[in-house]
Design brief:
The chain contains seven helices and 16 strands. The protein is an alpha+beta fold. The chain is elongated, with a radius of gyration of 27 Å.
């Protein structure tokens, strides 16, 4: 009986040693797998492109090769799958579901942050097999690779290419992410709602409240009391502040990366042309100057002069 007890203690001691040796390795492996490449098992049932078993096995066996920061010891070819949007989905939730960053999913499915906060049920989204973003290549691929810490061979192989095609092309840079203001724009946190209030007229075609004719509304109208504070939606510089027959008292701010914002029908302008303003800084007060049926703020977001839908670029507007 005493021998049996000693034997059991010896076995338990050996088991403890094995667990102590193996567990840290398993935990480290799992951490690396989740941190660098994560391929959900349910990808093989995604609408659009079913994931073949042999492809899934190939990807998972190569998943240890991708470190952070751009450089690759081994190359995992990019694969794009499709996900059909369901009711209640958000881009951030979908990105988390597939173990990807919001920057990756948003950049692949939205141009310059436009529409990040708008999803349509039934819409098909592109889901990449690894994190990364597309960059425009205008001939000098080697220079672009050097700037982002890649070799040309890595980028070409990740895109399934032997050589660069002629002309302007977009190539996927695995594990690369936007930084600074470009990242904020891509994931939809660069702009804030400039005034508290209810949107009474959206972006797009509508009946003109004065003529009754259908025309394109380049921004949104936010109803608010006369005198309510209007805030800068983003850091920028005042490039125009004055009076217009339609917009009434207005302000235009210039922002980084080619963006600008317009604030119309103000009762008061509180900034001068050339002033540098910070995000959320008060720049004016709500009014009903110009062609306005009541007190509200006409607000636009423009990218290189082209009007975008503010609802798609500002969360919970």
């Amino acid at each position: 009986m005493a021998r049996l007890k000693r034997y059991r203690k010896y076995l338990l001691f050996l088991c403890g040693l094995v667990v102590a040796a193996v567990l840290p390795v398993l935990l480290k492996t799992e951490k690396l797998r989740r941190e660098y490449l994560y391929y959900p098992k349910y990808w093989n049932s995604i609408a659009g492109y079913p994931l073949k078993k042999e492809t899934e096995n190939h990807i998972e066996s190569s998943s240890k090769a991708l470190p952070k920061g751009g450089r690759l010891d081994a190359i995992v070819p990019l694969q794009i799958y499709k996900y059909r949007v369901k009711k209640g989905d958000t881009l951030s939730g979908i990105a988390e579901q597939f173990g990807l960053t919001l920057d990756t999913v948003a950049s692949l499915n939205r141009n310059g942050g436009e529409g990040v906060h708008i999803l349509s049920v039934g819409e098909l989204l592109k889901i990449p097999s690894i994190d990364g973003i597309y960059l425009n290549v205008n001939g000098d691929l080697e220079k672009l690779c050097r700037e982002n810490g890649f070799s040309k061979e890595v980028v070409l192989e990740a895109n399934g290419l032997d050589k660069l095609k002629k002309g302007k092309v977009k190539l996927f840079f695995p594990n690369l992410q936007h930084s600074g203001i470009d990242r904020s724009i891509a994931i939809g946190v660069a702009f804030l709602k400039p005034v508290r209030g209810i949107i009474t007229s959206g972006y797009g075609f509508r009946h003109d409240p004065f003529s009754g004719k259908i025309h394109f509304h380049r921004g949104i109208d936010i109803a608010a009391p006369v005198g309510a504070y209007v805030h800068a939606a983003m850091d920028g510089r005042v490039i125009a502040a004055g009076e217009d027959a339609v917009l009434g008292n207005y302000i235009i701010l210039k922002h980084p990366s080619g963006y600008s914002t317009v604030y119309g029908h103000l009762s008061k302008i509180l900034v001068r042309r050339g002033k540098v303003v910070r995000k959320s800084e008060v720049i004016g007060r709500v009014g009903k100057t110009g062609r306005a049926t009541g007190p509200h703020l006409h607000f636009e977001i423009r990218s290189f002069g082209k009007a975008l839908n503010p609802k798609g670029m500002i969360a919970k507007i």
